Amino acid sequence: MQQVIDFIIRKKDVVIYIVLLLFSLTMIVNSNYFHKSKTLIIFNNITNYTFEKFTFFNEYFELKKLNSDLFEENLLLKSEIEKTIKYKNIDSLKTSKFKYKNARIISNSLSSFKNQIIINKGSKEGLKKEMGVINANGVVGIIKRTSQNYSTIMSLLNTDIKINAKVKRTNNFGTLEWNGEDINFLSLNDIPETANIRVGDSIVTGGMSLIFPEGINIGIVSKVNSYNLEKNKLNQTTKTNQNIKLKSRENYLNIEVKLHSDMGKLNNVYIIESMFIEEFNRIKENG
């Protein structure tokens, strides 16, 4: 405060001049309607210009983020197209295996064991139960039921969901499940201990159910444990029910997978329509 006072004392002539100038301008403006209206116009123009520039920069950064998201989504779709073209000459189904429809999320739960997502499209748009749902980063879930204008998705963060997945590097297949704990991690089960799985390996869809095309991103391996090791730990604490469950998975790995998608920040998604899933399911049911 003392520094401010010292500055004013040193520059008192300039300060007095500015005060008198502002006082004079105020008197002139208030005493004359013409000057007053002109001043208000100038002030409004300055205010509008400043607001316009602020809005421009704000929209610029929002558009930059939107363009980044759209770029990632386009890369995903481009990847799917390239895969389809790659197998065009050897796949009798050719380019008609899957179709994609976009939708927007309007509700997303994270705090229960049976988390669900609601999107703004339903049966009127051709959506059906058991259609896969993805976004730019990877798998999101599977449609559980539809109404005319909305659909409910069983999120990856639902203890009932099971996704056919594989380790991209080794091609080992397993079942992806959520244990109801951390929303950023899932477990990949049914992969034998003999498999050479490493931390950092990519986990993608296996393509064996026709709900998802093969190779859609899910996440990366963050931890690899043996169920036998976990069973030995439980034997020391006598947790009978969990021990029985682990016994059935002896000689298999317990693989922790960190999701690519931030399930708490989902916005736009793509619905995957498999053109042959009904035929596939009929053959599967008939054995």
Number of E strands: 12
Helix fraction by DSSP (H/I, runs of at least 4):
25-40%
Identify the CATH homologous superfamily of the domain at 97-285: Rod shape-determining protein MreC, domain 1
State the helix count.
Answer: 6
In spatial order, strands of the major sheet run 1-2-5-4-3-12
Oligomer: single chain
Please give the radius of gyration in angstroms: 31 Å
Q: Residue-averaged pLDDT, rounded?
A: 78
CATH topology of the domain at 97-285: Thrombin, subunit H
Query: Judging by the overall fold, what is the CATH architecture of the domain at 97-285?
Result: Beta Barrel
CATH class placement of the domain at 97-285: Mainly Beta
Main sheet summary:
6 strands, antiparallel, barrel
Structural class: alpha+beta
Distance between termini? 88 Å
Give the low-pLDDT segments.
Answer: 88-95, 231-247
